[in-house]
Amino acid sequence: MRIITSITQLRKVLNQVRRKGKTIGFVPTMGYFHEGHLSLMRQAKRDTDLCVVSIYVNPAQFGPQEDFKKYPRDLKRDSSMARKENVDILFVPSDNVIYSEGYLTYIDVEKISQWLCGRFRPGHFKGVATIVAKLLNIVWPDVLYLGQKDAQQVAVLKAMVRDLNFPLKVKVVATKREADGLAMSSRNKYLLSDHRRQAPVLYRALQQARRMVKSGEHSSAKIKAMIQSMIKHQSSGKIQYVACVHTDTLQELKTLEGKILIALAVFFGKTRLIDNVVIRLHARKQHKS
Amino acid sequence: MRIITSITQLRKVLNQVRRKGKTIGFVPTMGYFHEGHLSLMRQAKRDTDLCVVSIYVNPAQFGPQEDFKKYPRDLKRDSSMARKENVDILFVPSDNVIYSEGYLTYIDVEKISQWLCGRFRPGHFKGVATIVAKLLNIVWPDVLYLGQKDAQQVAVLKAMVRDLNFPLKVKVVATKREADGLAMSSRNKYLLSDHRRQAPVLYRALQQARRMVKSGEHSSAKIKAMIQSMIKHQSSGKIQYVACVHTDTLQELKTLEGKILIALAVFFGKTRLIDNVVIRLHARKQHKS
C-alpha cells in the first residue's frame, strides 16, 4: 500500500494505472475506520483493479458548533487497517492542498440537501458535495463507493454525479452494525456507556417499522409515531427527526409506496446518531393482466 | 467533422482518441459563430490533436427578462463555419440531454460571480459555471479555450477549474474586433444602425484608458470618469458599469497596480454590450537592488 499526500503524485500514479486499462474503485472517508469503511474497501477490491481510499476530515462539512476539532483522527491505526484490506493507495491530502488560499467554489444540490439532516446542519451537504467533486476530479475513479448509513449523503451525491455528468458508477454498500444492532460510526466512541447501552433502540425501532410496513401499515404518520414512542419509552435519546421519504428524491411520503427511506437522527447526550432503513414496496397493480 | 448530439456517443469517440494518447482541445460556445469563436477553434487546432466545439444555448445562464428565446441560432451556418476551421467534433446536445427532469445541482463561484456583470445578472455565472463543469466532465479536455471578451467568465471559470481540481489548462484568447474596434459578439446583430455606428466608442475609451494608465495615471476614479465622460459625450449609450478591478480576484482597485482589468457594460437601446482591456503594471520597486 502506498500512502500519497500530493495531488500531482497521485495523478501520476493513477494515470499509469489507467493507461494499462485497469479500473479504479474509490472510497472517500474521514478516517477513523470501522467495519463499515472496511466493507466499502472490500467491495472496491472485489469489483475493480485498484482500490484508492482517501482520508480527509473536511472542514467545509462541519458547522461552527460541530465536532470538527475533536473528530477522531488516527492515521497510524487507519493505515494499518487499510493495509490489511490490501488497499492499494491511501490518499491523505493535507489541508492546504485541498482548500488553497482564496478558495471560492461550492456545489449545491438543491432541495434534497435542505431536508432531513440538512435542516439541522445548514451547509453540511454543500461541503460534502464540494469535497467529493474535488476528489472525483483528482482520482477519476470508475466506481465510487458509499455507505448506506449516510442515506441522505447517498441521495445528494448520486444526484450530483448524475447532474454534473461524472463518468462513473455509484455503488452503495449496506450499513455495518455492532452485534446489538447499533450502526457503526466513528462518532460512537463519543457515547457514554449508559447511552451506548440504550442506542440500539434506534435499530430495533427501524426493524419494527420495516415489519409493520411489510405487513400492510402504509401510513407514514403511524410508522413515525411508533418509532418515536419506542425511542422515548426505551431510552433517554432526544429525537431530532424521524422521516419517511422517497429514497432518491427525499420527498416526504404520506402513504408509503415505492422506494421508501425511513431515516432518523437522535441525540444521546451531545452525540448525534443517525440510522435508516430502506424498504421497497411494489405499487399495487392497477389492472389484472 | 462529425456532428454528435449524444453524450454516450461523444464519450465513446473521445475515449478512443484518448487511448491513442492524443490531446483534446475544447471550445464551449452558444453558437452563432463570429471571428472570435473561430480564433478559439484555430488556437485549439494549433495546440492539441483534436478540437471539440460545443454549441448549447444554456437556459441556466439567462435571466427571466433576458434574450434566451431570441438568442440567434443557426446550426447550418455554424457547422459550415466550423467545418472550414477543420474542427473535428461539433457537439450539439439537445436540451433534455443536458438538464434532465429533476435536475438539482448548481456550482457557485462565490464573490467573483456577484460583482461586475454578476450584480446585474443574478444567477448568470452560476449557470455558466454549472454548464461548463458538466461539459468538462463529458469532454475531459486537456485544454479549455475561453475568449477574453468575457473577462468575468474567464475569472469565474479559472477559479472553478482551480478549486474543483479539473485536470486541464485554461487558455484565454484575445478579443476579436471589427475594423472600427467594436468587440465581436453574437449580440451585435441586435444593434440598430445608429447604435452600431456609436458602439466603437467603448473600445476607443478603453484604449484611451490604457494610454492614460501607461503614462502614469493610476487613480481608478479618474480613469473611470474619463471613460464615462467619453461614452456620454460621443454616444447615446447608457452605462451600466465601468470598473477597475484585479484581473483574477475581480476586487475593486482604487490605485491601479498589478494585473488590472478595466471592464464596462453599456446599453445601446435594448442591446447590452460588454468590453474590457487588461493592463499589467509592475509594482514600483521598494528598494534599489
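qc> Chain A is about 35% helix and 20% strand.
qc> done
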